[in-house]
């Protein structure tokens, strides 16, 4: 699984745990809803660490907390 997909899955997991929708995440993070929805777009392959950090801030978690999930330990090598 590409890291971008893992990031989207992780944000979905956290939002589902908190009963939060993408729009609410965007408002809390101070970004546009289109930024969050485009992150989840399968055609988009790259994400900026700045967006990830803002979304984590909106969730009141650190980047360490966000990436401290088994999902990220199981990623395949991105360089082929």
Mean pLDDT: 92
CATH H-level name... which superfamily?
lambda repressor-like DNA-binding domains
Largest sheet: none
Helical stretch tally: 6
Which geometry do the CA atoms define?
globular
- Could you name the ranges where pLDDT drops below 50 across 5 or more consecutive residues? none
CATH topology: 434 Repressor (Amino-terminal Domain)
How many domains comprise the coordinates? Answer: 1
H/E order of the elements? HHHHHH
Strand content: under 5%
At CATH's second level, what is the architecture? Orthogonal Bundle
CATH class wording: Mainly Alpha
DSSP E strands, number: 0
Distance between the termini: 13 Å
Please explain how this structure is put together.
There is one protein chain. The protein is mostly helical and 80 residues long. The chain has one domain (3-73): lambda repressor-like DNA-binding domains (434 Repressor (Amino-terminal Domain)), CATH 1.10.260.40. 65% of the residues lie in helices and 0% in strands. The chain has helices at 3-18, 22-29, 33-40, 49-59, 63-67, 70-73. Helix 2 (22-29) crosses helix 3. The radius of gyration is 12 Å and the shape is globular. 9% of the residues are buried. The model has no long low-confidence stretch (mean pLDDT 92).
Spell out the blueprint of helices and strands:
Layout: H1 3-18, H2 22-29, H3 33-40, H4 49-59, H5 63-67, H6 70-73
Helix pairs in contact: 2-3, 2-4
Could you list some keywords that capture this structure?
single chain; 80 residues; mainly alpha; 434 Repressor (Amino-terminal Domain); 65% helix
